[in-house]
Every structure is written in C-alpha cells, then in structure tokens.
Design a protein that fits this description.
GO biological process, one term (chains A, B): pyrimidine nucleobase metabolic process
Keywords (chains A, B): Glycosyltransferase, Transferase
Number of strands of chain A: 13
GO molecular function, one term (chains A, B): thymidine phosphorylase activity
CATH class of the largest domain in chain A: Alpha Beta
Number of helices of chain A: 17
EC number (chains A, B): 2.4.2.4
Helix content of chain A: 40-55%
Structural class of chain A: alpha/beta
Largest interface: A-B, 25 and 25 residues
CATH topology of the largest domain in chain A: Pyrimidine Nucleoside Phosphorylase, Chain A, domain 2
Shape of chain A: globular
Family (chains A, B): Belongs to the thymidine/pyrimidine-nucleoside phosphorylase family.
Oligomer: homodimer
Chain lengths: 435, 435
C-alpha cells in the first residue's frame, strides 16, 4: 500500500476500506507517513467526506493506536460525558458529581481550552492544589474510592488522534464532521466507559452553527458508538447564547458550586438534568425521564451532589477551603460593567465573540503553550429575550487592568443585537438522539 | 496573514488575491510555511480549482522565486519550446537544431524523465561526453556562439516550483490543470525566452487523457504567457500512440539523428515542422505557415539542422564520433521482437504501458535518485491503423537480459488492441491555440 494512492482514491471521491484506514493510522502513528501526506489526505476527506463505515473504521483505528482502558475490574459500569464545546459550558463540573452521587461512577478524561472555547481541566485547576495529571493507578483508586475522577487527557489514549488533531488545527481541516466524530469517539471509546452521553452544541458559540449540522454529527457519533458496542446517546443543545452566566475559569467554578448548592442559572441546571437523565436511562437506573429527573433533583436538593464534588476535589489534592468559600478563588483586580449601548430586547448574543474576548483578557489560549489567567472572564447580567434600558449592565468584565477592558469593549458590544419588538428566548434543547 | 486562513479560503472555494498567492510562495520558498500546510493547500486547489487571475499570480510568484534570466544582451530574440510529456517524444532533439539553423536562437532548460515519461536531458546524456550541467556563463557563451544550448534545469530557476512539484508528486496533487499550467509557465517565464511554443499532448500516453483537457490547459498557459508579456502559442498533439518509433534514451537519439539526416518517422517530422513553424510565425520570420514550413524543410534537406546539432553536441563536450556513427551509442545486449498475439488491425497502443515497460527495463526512473540505463527501450514496428499477421513483430525490445524481456512482455502485449475491421490512424495535431 502507498499513501499517495490512498490520498488519490479519497481525492477522487471513493471510499477507503477498513484495512486502508487502519493502515493509514498505524503508519501515521509510527511516523512512517509524513505530515505532508496526512494533511493532503485530511483536506481530501474534508472536501470529499467519508461514509459511515469509513468514519467508524477511522475511529476504531485511532482508538486502538494507544491504550484501551478497561475499568470493569474497578466498577462494573462507568459513564462518561462529552461536549462538542461551547461558551460558558461548565456542565461537567455539575453533572459529574451529580451522576456519581446517584451511583453512576464517572472516570472522565477532559481537555484544555483552545481558541474561543474553554476546557474542564483549566476550570478545575483554578482550585488551588487540585491536580488533573494523574497516574493510571491514582485514576483507578479515585474511581474506586470516590466514584468520580476527572483527569487531564492522557497522551496514551488515542495518540493518533492527538497527532492528527494537531495537524488538522494548522491545515484548516478541523471542521469536517466525519473527522470531528472520529476524533471525539476515538477518545471516548479508548477511555472505557460503558454509557456515554454527548452534548452536541449548535449556534453562534459552537463549532456547529446549525441544528442540522449538529444532528448530522450527533447521528454519526451515536452510530459509531453502537458499532463499537457501547451505549451512546446525544443531546442537541443550543449555544445561541452562552450557557449560564459566567465565562472564565474561576468564575465558572463559582457558578458550578452555586448550582450544586441549590442555586445556579436555570439553563445550566436544566441541561445537566437532561444529560444526566440520559445516563440514568442508559444505565437502566430509571425507566423514564421523569423518574430520572426526580432522582437527580433529590441528589441536588439533599446536598449529595455537592458532597461528591468536595470528595472529588479533596481526592485530587484540591484545597476545600476555596470550594467552601468560593470568593477566595482567584479574583481579577478590575471588575466593571458593560452598559447596554441602546434600549430594547436582546435578540442575539454571539457566544464566540465573548469567548474570544475572555481569551483576549488572558483567560484562554491561542496556542497550546499559552498560560492562562484563571481569574478573568465575563458574568452576563442579561440574556437573549431580556428587555434592557440604555446603560443597563449587560455583563460584568473581570479583567487584569483597565487597558485590557478597553481593548475588549468593542468586541463585546459587537456581540449583542437588539430588537424593538419582544424576542423569544432560544430553545435550550432541540432533540435527544437515540439510536 | 496566516497560512491556515488562506488554506481555509481556498478550501471554501474563494479566489485568493495576487498578494495572498505571492505571500504563500514567498513564505514557502523561505521555508516559513511547512510542507504539511502547503500540501493541504495544494489539495484544496486540486479540488476547488483556481481562476485565470489566480493561476497567473501563482505562476509569476513562482517564476520570481529565483533568478529571472534575461538573455537580451546575448541575443535580441530567443525561442523556447515545452512539451507536457509523452512517450517517445524526442521532438526537442530535432526541433531545437532545426529552428537554430534557420536563425532563431534557442537557450533551453530541460528536465529529466520521471514516471512513464522520458526527459530530454537523459536522452542527450546517452551521447558520451555530453554535459548538460552548465554554468550560467557557459550557457550564455554557447547561446552566443552556437545559437543553441540545452542545459539541465537549474535549481536557480523557479525554485519554489521545484519545491512544490516534489511535494505534489507525493501528495496526489499533480494532475491539477492550474497547478500544471503554473509549474510549466513559471519555469518558461524564468528561462527568459521571448517566443514560446507549447506542445500539449493528450491521449493514453500523456498526462491529459482527452483533447478537451489538453485544450483547457493550453488555453491557461497561453493566457498566462500573454499576461506576462511573452508570445506563447500551443499545439494540441496526439499521444494516442507513441511519437515516432523509438522509446528509450539512446534509441530516441538515434531516431532524432535519422530525422535530421533526411530520414525519420513521418509523424515526428510533421510535429517538428508544425511546432517550429509556430516559432517562426511568432518571431515574424515568416508570414504564413506554408512559408515557414518551406524554410524549415530546406534547413532539414540542406543538412543545416544536422550541422547545428553537431555544433551543439561538440559545444557541450559530446563526442561527435557517436553522433556520426549512431550505432556506436549504447546498445542493449538483448534485442528481441514482440510477436503480434493475433492478426488484425491495430486499434490502440497504450503509450503509458510502453513507457512503464521501458522504465521496468531500466530506462527510466521511479524515484529521482534512480540511475538509468541509456541503452534499453522499444522500437515500434507497427502503428495504430496497421494491419498485422499473427506473429508479425509489433516492436523490438532492447533489454539487459532475457529475464528482463520476460518480465515486461505481458505488460507490452496488454498495451495493444486489435480490431477485425480497418482502423483510421489517429490525427496527429488537433489544433493550434493562438490567443
């Protein structure tokens, strides 16, 4: 087999066989196929697409390029959750302790933020002392003892995906549905969970701009999961405005703590219940959604979920004093309101612009090597559909300096659109994809 | 400017500006854009195409990536010729001395063979002593003194094209019309000729399979030439069977010598007259094709063209004894006929298969580093349209051993198709493209 022939085959629109895709990934992981051939192939895939068989074959090949975790010796059934990424998405921080509290062990590998989107690992690391670089033995021990562990994505899992993703990032081949599906699912399959819920986001603050794209991606990933023998469901959720109010690492941790302690923004709580509910249904811990939601609401109300987060943070070395008094978490020196530039109903909030503004404030990464400032970010004071008067605070800016504030204000203002007529708030969840 | 954004722009089907293409080539030549980005861009160009402005901008950027020859201090007007490559194409060996003999100085840079197609430099080097690696000073001196020089493509000319071509070759992005046009024309523009004739070949032995593709490519290249202020015309010629009879380096030199000494296959002579005639018309040495052809026929008949080849070979260090007695040129130890496997009219001769067979005999290159055996090759004894009896020799195989013969026979036989009914020979020249 020669890579140049396989590139030509895909370039001409033909489907590659499982054997051919397996060979490509194996050779690429072994550095026997150079990046310049892989990127030409990725562009051909981007423009010519891949069918369901190809996508599954690619996923399995990438999953098998490294360690395949088997956690059944630690827990008979584990669950996992993945979000395709959005602005202000602190769902994992609430959902993970919630499902663990109702008896579904979760051993999760999470990523760091890049571009306009944040990452769970960065958020968790704003808690002083908390470690996410865990050894395999620690990971298993915490799963056994706490029933919940969140570690930084290990390089051992799906290393071919890691290699290919880094290449796609610099060759304009990220936004390909089959490549995204294969990337997400290869890591999820390698991480070993039995039941996986996918939060596939659409809208201005997500990679998928429309519900139709999100549905196509969700369907692909659910299919792959089934072909690989796992239970997988997907929720299509709106990122037409950021989720909850806080955007920024420590700010999001505070909001998540609030949600676990009986408060929290209603959209965040609702999405967590819907995603967690699907995990309960897949794990056969509830017969219907209403029962599942009742179990979960009880775990929130009783403080069981909050207690589970404390256990997890303590287990991973985090200082509970910061969790119990979230005002002690890193705070930005400048906190200032962004006044509404006009009166009216807010008709749109462009999430990607807010995410990039947080990046510009120092809260995210442009390149992987960048360090981040956990204290900075935004806290929204108004949502799509709200009526505001001229000068009413749209959001609070948490910044390192006034100069930093001034630099992002134009971008922030440009993220808002106003309407004279009332505007209906966007639907939070479009559909649940069950095979 | 960021390369990843320019890749995305082309990926999405937009046209790149002259400034953007200039930047890409400049940065790529300076090694500031890595191969993996360039190959993703090339695949996007392959699948999305480029318009006339983009193709011209790319061509000029590649031409300007190295030295731009200006030969006007040596000769007020120089001519050049390029073929898109075919099987048995020894046209340059006849045409170059022919036009130089009638007073059109030709300073030509030629390539080596790769894949199924041969190269003029390899052919010339089968003459003992002859050097094609010439310094700039030698090149100019020979142009001044002889009016004819053929050198191996210098690395100084259009180095960005050389770099990109090597990358396209291993990333399945060769067969893109705009990229082919830009590659050819960047070298021709950099080589400094005032009048350029292009021999754009189509058929089973050429890169372009159909006259329509060849016409599109020819039109692109003629347009580029005009936009760059040169006189350029293109001839669409058939490669539905090899040109002339000989395929293989020394064998083709022998055939070219025959053509310059009053013999030679009629199709070779005809194509040389048509291409040379266009050069005479562009250089305003003749008012019409008939006059041009009369001038050229006279130069062949008088021995002036033959004398010019001898001058050139002597000037470049070649031993004239081999030219004057071509039987002394390298000879293969085994020479054996390929008998017709059936009686009938020959309806097709697949040139690419014959070219690959010569490669397999050792006469061509699979990789650039390969060395070649100048002695081996094929001499066709029958052409499309000829009626043959069972066992009649279709061609002579010149091989290093009987084992080598046996290895290529199945491939050679597969190149022939036969018909019970008479078959018309293919048209040699489809059209001349004049802007």
């Amino acid at each position: 087999m020669r890579m140049v022939d396989l590139i030509a085959k895909k370039r001409d629109g033909a489907a590659l066989s499982s054997g051919e895709l397996g060979w490509i990934i194996e050779q690429y992981a072994a550095q026997a196929i150079p990046d310049y051939q892989m990127s030409a192939w990725a562009m051909a895939v981007f423009l010519r697409g891949m069918d369901a068989h190809e996508t599954t074959a690619l996923t399995l090949a990438m999953a098998r390029s490294g360690a395949m975790l088997d956690l059944h010796d630690v827990a008979p059934l584990t669950v996992d959750k993945h979000s395709t990424g959005g602005i202000g998405d602190k769902t994992t921080l609430v959902l993970a302790p919630l499902v663990a509290a109702v008896g579904l062990p979760m051993a999760k590998m999470s990523g760091r933020g890049l571009g306009f989107s944040g990452g769970t690992v960065d958020k968790l690391e704003s808690i002083p002392g908390l470690r996410t670089a865990l050894s395999g033995a620690e990971f298993r021990r915490l799963l056994r003892e706490v029933g919940l562990v969140i570690a930084a994505q290990s390089g051992d899992l799906a290393p071919a995906d890691k290699q290919l993703y880094a290449l796609r990032d610099v060759t304009a081949t990220v936004a390909s549905l089959p490549l995204i599906a294969a990337s997400v699912m290869s890591k999820k399959l390698a991480a070993g969970a039995d039941c996986i819920v996918l939060d596939v986001k659409y809208g201005s603050g997500a990679f998928m701009r429309t519900p139709e794209q999100a549905r196509e991606l969700a369907q692909m990933m659910v299919n792959i999961g089934q072909l690989a023998g796992r239970k997988v469901r997907a929720v299509l959720s709106s990122m037409q405005q950021p989720l909850g109010c806080a955007i920024g690492n420590a700010l999001e941790v505070r909001e998540a703590i609030g949600a676990l302690r009986g408060g929290g923004p209603p959209d965040l709580i609702e999405l967590c219940l819907i995603l967690s509910g699907q995990l309960l249904l897949m794990a056969e811990r509830a017969d219907d959604e209403a029962t599942a939601h009742a179990i979960l609401r009880e775990a929130l109300a009783s403080g069981a979920a909050w207690a589970k987060l404390r256990q997890m943070v303590a287990g991973q070395g985090g200082d509970l004093a910061y969790l119990d008094e979230p005002t002690r978490l890193p705070c930005a020196p400048v906190q200032i309101a962004l006044p509404a530039p006009q009166a009216g109903y807010i008709s749109a909030i462009e999430g990607a612009s807010l995410g990039l503004a947080v990046n510009a404030l120092g809260g995210g990464r442009v390149r992987k090597e960048d360090t981040i400032d956990p204290s900075v970010g935004l806290v929204m004071q108004a949502r799509v559909g709200d009526q505001v008067y001229l000068g009413q605070p749209l959001l609070m800016i948490h910044a390192p300096s006034m100069a930093a504030v001034e630099a992002v204000v134009p971008q922030l203002l440009a993220a808002y659109q106003f309407s004279a007529a009332p505007v209906a708030p966007p639907l939070l969840v479009e559909a649940v994809i069950v095979l």
